[in-house]
UniProtKB/TrEMBL annotation:
Organism: Zooxanthella nutricula
Keyword list, A-Z: Membrane, Transmembrane, Transmembrane helix
Lineage: Eukaryota, Sar, Alveolata, Dinophyceae, Peridiniales
Transmembrane segments: 63-85
Gene3D superfamilies reported for this sequence: 1.10.287.70
Protein name: Uncharacterized protein
Length: 221
Protein backbone atom coordinates (compact mmCIF):
# COMPACT_ATOMS: atom_id res chain seq x y z
CA UNK A 1 0.00 0.00 0.00
CA UNK A 2 2.72 2.50 0.96
CA UNK A 3 4.46 1.93 -2.36
CA UNK A 4 1.32 2.37 -4.46
CA UNK A 5 -0.12 5.39 -2.67
CA UNK A 6 2.65 7.65 -3.97
CA UNK A 7 4.44 8.88 -0.85
CA UNK A 8 7.45 11.15 -1.34
CA UNK A 9 10.01 12.29 1.22
CA UNK A 10 12.95 14.60 1.62
CA UNK A 11 15.83 13.07 3.57
CA UNK A 12 19.30 14.41 4.43
CA UNK A 13 22.17 13.12 2.32
CA UNK A 14 25.69 13.08 3.78
CA UNK A 15 28.56 13.25 1.33
CA UNK A 16 31.53 10.87 1.64
CA UNK A 17 33.72 13.58 3.22
CA UNK A 18 31.28 13.64 6.17
CA UNK A 19 31.16 17.43 6.38
CA UNK A 20 28.57 18.38 3.78
CA UNK A 21 24.88 17.60 4.21
CA UNK A 22 22.30 18.16 1.54
CA UNK A 23 18.60 17.38 1.16
CA UNK A 24 17.72 14.52 -1.14
CA UNK A 25 14.18 14.16 -2.45
CA UNK A 26 12.65 10.71 -2.86
CA UNK A 27 9.96 11.21 -5.48
CA UNK A 28 8.25 7.88 -4.78
CA UNK A 29 9.09 5.22 -2.22
CA UNK A 30 10.46 1.98 -3.63
CA UNK A 31 9.63 -1.47 -2.23
CA UNK A 32 12.44 -1.48 0.35
CA UNK A 33 11.52 1.95 1.70
CA UNK A 34 7.83 1.05 1.83
CA UNK A 35 8.59 -2.20 3.66
CA UNK A 36 10.90 -0.37 6.08
CA UNK A 37 8.20 2.17 6.94
CA UNK A 38 5.52 -0.54 7.21
CA UNK A 39 7.54 -2.57 9.72
CA UNK A 40 8.40 0.49 11.82
CA UNK A 41 4.80 1.65 11.85
CA UNK A 42 3.51 -1.81 12.74
CA UNK A 43 5.96 -2.13 15.63
CA UNK A 44 5.26 1.46 16.77
CA UNK A 45 8.97 2.22 17.13
CA UNK A 46 9.08 5.45 15.12
CA UNK A 47 9.31 6.26 11.45
CA UNK A 48 12.99 7.07 10.95
CA UNK A 49 13.84 9.53 8.20
CA UNK A 50 10.82 8.74 6.05
CA UNK A 51 7.65 10.78 6.45
CA UNK A 52 4.35 10.38 4.64
CA UNK A 53 3.13 12.98 2.19
CA UNK A 54 -0.28 11.55 1.25
CA UNK A 55 -3.36 11.93 3.48
CA UNK A 56 -4.62 8.46 2.54
CA UNK A 57 -1.32 6.97 3.69
CA UNK A 58 -1.51 8.83 7.03
CA UNK A 59 -5.06 7.59 7.61
CA UNK A 60 -4.07 4.03 6.79
CA UNK A 61 -1.09 4.26 9.16
CA UNK A 62 -3.45 4.84 12.11
CA UNK A 63 -5.09 1.46 11.50
CA UNK A 64 -1.74 -0.14 10.67
CA UNK A 65 -0.28 0.97 14.02
CA UNK A 66 -3.35 -0.24 15.94
CA UNK A 67 -3.23 -3.61 14.18
CA UNK A 68 0.49 -3.96 14.84
CA UNK A 69 0.10 -3.08 18.52
CA UNK A 70 -2.71 -5.61 18.89
CA UNK A 71 -0.64 -8.32 17.21
CA UNK A 72 2.39 -7.61 19.42
CA UNK A 73 0.26 -7.55 22.59
CA UNK A 74 -1.41 -10.82 21.64
CA UNK A 75 1.91 -12.49 20.84
CA UNK A 76 3.50 -11.34 24.11
CA UNK A 77 0.47 -12.49 26.08
CA UNK A 78 0.58 -15.90 24.43
CA UNK A 79 4.31 -16.34 25.00
CA UNK A 80 4.08 -15.19 28.64
CA UNK A 81 1.23 -17.61 29.30
CA UNK A 82 3.19 -20.39 27.64
CA UNK A 83 6.27 -19.54 29.71
CA UNK A 84 4.30 -19.62 32.97
CA UNK A 85 2.63 -22.93 32.12
CA UNK A 86 5.90 -24.59 31.12
CA UNK A 87 7.75 -23.19 34.12
CA UNK A 88 5.06 -24.50 36.47
CA UNK A 89 5.11 -27.86 34.68
CA UNK A 90 8.90 -28.02 34.98
CA UNK A 91 8.77 -27.20 38.70
CA UNK A 92 6.38 -30.05 39.39
CA UNK A 93 7.96 -32.80 37.27
CA UNK A 94 10.03 -34.15 40.15
CA UNK A 95 7.08 -33.90 42.51
CA UNK A 96 4.88 -35.74 40.01
CA UNK A 97 7.47 -38.49 39.64
CA UNK A 98 7.69 -38.88 43.41
CA UNK A 99 3.90 -38.81 43.73
CA UNK A 100 3.61 -41.73 41.31
CA UNK A 101 6.32 -43.57 43.21
CA UNK A 102 4.47 -42.88 46.48
CA UNK A 103 1.31 -44.41 45.06
CA UNK A 104 3.21 -47.45 43.81
CA UNK A 105 4.90 -47.92 47.18
CA UNK A 106 1.77 -47.07 49.19
CA UNK A 107 3.73 -44.30 50.90
CA UNK A 108 2.38 -41.23 52.65
CA UNK A 109 3.67 -38.33 50.60
CA UNK A 110 2.99 -35.85 53.39
CA UNK A 111 4.87 -37.73 56.11
CA UNK A 112 7.60 -38.79 53.74
CA UNK A 113 9.20 -42.07 52.72
CA UNK A 114 10.29 -44.67 55.24
CA UNK A 115 13.70 -46.27 54.78
CA UNK A 116 12.34 -49.43 53.08
CA UNK A 117 10.28 -47.24 50.76
CA UNK A 118 13.30 -45.06 49.99
CA UNK A 119 15.28 -48.17 49.12
CA UNK A 120 12.56 -49.26 46.69
CA UNK A 121 12.49 -45.75 45.27
CA UNK A 122 16.26 -45.87 44.75
CA UNK A 123 15.84 -49.13 42.84
CA UNK A 124 12.93 -47.78 40.77
CA UNK A 125 14.58 -44.42 39.96
CA UNK A 126 18.40 -44.68 40.06
CA UNK A 127 18.73 -40.93 39.57
CA UNK A 128 17.88 -40.47 43.27
CA UNK A 129 20.49 -43.08 44.17
CA UNK A 130 23.07 -41.19 42.14
CA UNK A 131 22.12 -37.90 43.82
CA UNK A 132 22.42 -39.46 47.29
CA UNK A 133 25.81 -40.93 46.36
CA UNK A 134 27.07 -37.52 45.21
CA UNK A 135 25.86 -35.95 48.45
CA UNK A 136 27.63 -38.63 50.50
CA UNK A 137 30.81 -38.52 48.41
CA UNK A 138 31.72 -34.96 47.39
CA UNK A 139 34.80 -36.16 45.48
CA UNK A 140 33.72 -36.65 41.84
CA UNK A 141 35.95 -39.68 41.27
CA UNK A 142 34.69 -41.53 44.35
CA UNK A 143 31.09 -40.65 43.56
CA UNK A 144 31.39 -41.84 39.95
CA UNK A 145 32.98 -45.10 41.07
CA UNK A 146 30.07 -45.80 43.43
CA UNK A 147 27.53 -44.84 40.75
CA UNK A 148 29.16 -47.17 38.22
CA UNK A 149 29.22 -49.98 40.77
CA UNK A 150 25.53 -49.52 41.53
CA UNK A 151 24.59 -49.34 37.86
CA UNK A 152 26.51 -52.51 36.95
CA UNK A 153 25.32 -54.56 39.93
CA UNK A 154 22.80 -57.39 39.69
CA UNK A 155 19.34 -56.79 41.24
CA UNK A 156 20.21 -58.56 44.50
CA UNK A 157 23.56 -56.81 44.82
CA UNK A 158 21.94 -53.49 43.95
CA UNK A 159 19.44 -53.87 46.80
CA UNK A 160 22.31 -54.53 49.22
CA UNK A 161 24.18 -51.47 47.96
CA UNK A 162 21.06 -49.34 48.40
CA UNK A 163 20.70 -50.58 51.98
CA UNK A 164 24.34 -49.72 52.67
CA UNK A 165 23.91 -46.24 51.22
CA UNK A 166 20.83 -45.64 53.35
CA UNK A 167 22.64 -46.76 56.48
CA UNK A 168 25.46 -44.36 55.72
CA UNK A 169 22.99 -41.58 54.89
CA UNK A 170 21.18 -42.02 58.23
CA UNK A 171 24.49 -41.54 60.01
CA UNK A 172 25.79 -38.58 58.03
CA UNK A 173 22.89 -36.68 56.43
CA UNK A 174 20.39 -34.59 58.38
CA UNK A 175 17.59 -35.39 55.93
CA UNK A 176 17.75 -39.10 56.85
CA UNK A 177 18.21 -38.89 60.63
CA UNK A 178 14.52 -39.39 61.44
CA UNK A 179 14.37 -42.69 59.52
CA UNK A 180 12.17 -41.02 56.91
CA UNK A 181 12.68 -38.48 54.17
CA UNK A 182 10.24 -35.81 53.04
CA UNK A 183 9.41 -35.38 49.38
CA UNK A 184 10.80 -31.84 49.30
CA UNK A 185 14.09 -33.07 50.78
CA UNK A 186 14.44 -35.71 48.07
CA UNK A 187 13.64 -33.12 45.41
CA UNK A 188 16.24 -30.74 46.87
CA UNK A 189 18.91 -33.46 46.93
CA UNK A 190 18.12 -34.41 43.36
CA UNK A 191 18.21 -30.77 42.21
CA UNK A 192 21.55 -29.97 43.84
CA UNK A 193 23.42 -33.24 43.35
CA UNK A 194 22.14 -34.40 39.97
CA UNK A 195 24.64 -35.10 37.21
CA UNK A 196 25.95 -32.25 35.07
CA UNK A 197 23.97 -33.57 32.10
CA UNK A 198 20.71 -33.57 34.07
CA UNK A 199 21.34 -30.11 35.50
CA UNK A 200 22.18 -28.74 32.03
CA UNK A 201 19.06 -30.35 30.56
CA UNK A 202 16.91 -28.90 33.34
CA UNK A 203 18.41 -25.46 32.82
CA UNK A 204 17.65 -25.70 29.11
CA UNK A 205 14.08 -26.73 29.84
CA UNK A 206 13.73 -24.02 32.46
CA UNK A 207 14.83 -21.28 30.05
CA UNK A 208 13.36 -22.78 26.89
CA UNK A 209 10.41 -20.40 26.90
CA UNK A 210 12.69 -17.37 27.32
CA UNK A 211 14.75 -18.51 24.36
CA UNK A 212 11.61 -18.97 22.28
CA UNK A 213 10.30 -15.53 23.24
CA UNK A 214 13.63 -13.89 22.39
CA UNK A 215 13.81 -15.74 19.08
CA UNK A 216 10.25 -14.77 18.19
CA UNK A 217 11.00 -11.14 19.05
CA UNK A 218 13.99 -10.99 16.70
CA UNK A 219 12.03 -12.81 14.00
CA UNK A 220 9.32 -10.14 14.23
CA UNK A 221 12.01 -7.50 13.82
Amino acid sequence: FYRRVGNSSTVPHIYPNGTEVDDFEIVQWNFAQSWYFSVQAGLSIGFGLLSESEDASKLYSCFHILAGSSAISGALSMFCSLALVRHRHFQTRSEQRLAKASAALHADGYRGFTLPQIRELMLMHPQYTNAIIRKLRPEPAAAQEAIDEFGAAAPGRRKALASGLLKEACQRLDEFKHDSVKVEDLVAIDEVHASFYRRALRALRRHRSSVQITTAFFVML
